[in-house]
Amino acid sequence: MTSADTPPRESGAGDPPSILSKAFDLLRAFNPYARVMTLSELARASGLPKSTVHRLLARLVELGVVEHHRGGYKIGLDMLQLCASTPAGYMRDLAMPYLTKLHRWCGHTVHMAVLRHYDVVYLEKLSVSESPTSITSVGARLPAHCTALGKALLAHENLDDLRDFLPRPLPALTPRSITGVEVLIDELRQVRADGVARECEEAQLGLACLAAPICMNGFAVGAISVGFPMEFAPPPNLAGALRATAAQIGSDVDAGLGGGRERWFPREI
């Protein structure tokens, strides 16, 4: 076999990291709690040498992916616009008027999230000033089974496939988190029947949450929720308001994107 006949070698786990992978490692260092970071902080968080971080930042600034900000760096507008062009970003933009209306009506924290493999990823959070410190934030990931948002999404998956996929025992965030797969499956059947999911201190002690799925053609592509301290009673008809708001968002997303759910939101499980 000549060199021309030799197939190109695929990159693997043993290959040294590429410049592109290093750039993504650097970008992942930014998070909701560190939106502006210095060169030293980025090097420490990414695990990359300062000299590498300096070179990468110079190029990323030229591309508009990262911007200078008060002696540090932040994610650039071009990067934010790119993120907003994703189906999830588009859905979040369409949902904002409805989320704002729900937030004003209920007076509690409103979330929006999507399912990514076994986690929920938060796309939006509208807080209230008197709300206790929460573990949720935009971009945060939590185990789906510990959250009302995650249950609303998991309930629309194939439960037999889900039973095979889920780890045993399920990881717990609090002593009240569900750890038994069959217990979770039974609850997901009820969530599917009710059209709303509930959790009480399963993600964080002292907090409860109700959630409803955002559906396209019968499949959940996202979910919205209202979270509140355990000492407060939820607003009357909160479940109905969540279902109605989620249905409105789903209708707008379906009309705006077109092409079917699988084209824009392929299954994560």
Automatic annotation (TrEMBL):
<dbReference type="InterPro" id="IPR005471">
    <property type="entry name" value="Tscrpt_reg_IclR_N"/>
</dbReference>
<dbReference type="InterPro" id="IPR050707">
    <property type="entry name" value="HTH_MetabolicPath_Reg"/>
</dbReference>
<dbReference type="GO" id="GO:0003677">
    <property type="term" value="F:DNA binding"/>
</dbReference>
<dbReference type="InterPro" id="IPR036390">
    <property type="entry name" value="WH_DNA-bd_sf"/>
</dbReference>
<dbReference type="InterPro" id="IPR014757">
    <property type="entry name" value="Tscrpt_reg_IclR_C"/>
</dbReference>
<feature type="domain" description="HTH iclR-type">
    <location>
        <begin position="17"/>
        <end position="77"/>
    </location>
</feature>
<dbReference type="GO" id="GO:0003700">
    <property type="term" value="F:DNA-binding transcription factor activity"/>
</dbReference>
<dbReference type="GO" id="GO:0045892">
    <property type="term" value="P:negative regulation of DNA-templated transcription"/>
</dbReference>
<keyword id="KW-0804">Transcription</keyword>
<feature type="domain" description="IclR-ED">
    <location>
        <begin position="78"/>
        <end position="259"/>
    </location>
</feature>
<keyword id="KW-0238">DNA-binding</keyword>
<keyword id="KW-0805">Transcription regulation</keyword>
<dbReference type="InterPro" id="IPR011991">
    <property type="entry name" value="ArsR-like_HTH"/>
</dbReference>
<dbReference type="Pfam" id="PF01614">
    <property type="entry name" value="IclR_C"/>
</dbReference>
<protein>
    <submittedName>
        <fullName>Transcriptional regulator KdgR</fullName>
    </submittedName>
</protein>
<dbReference type="InterPro" id="IPR036388">
    <property type="entry name" value="WH-like_DNA-bd_sf"/>
</dbReference>
<dbReference type="Pfam" id="PF09339">
    <property type="entry name" value="HTH_IclR"/>
</dbReference>
<dbReference type="InterPro" id="IPR029016">
    <property type="entry name" value="GAF-like_dom_sf"/>
</dbReference>
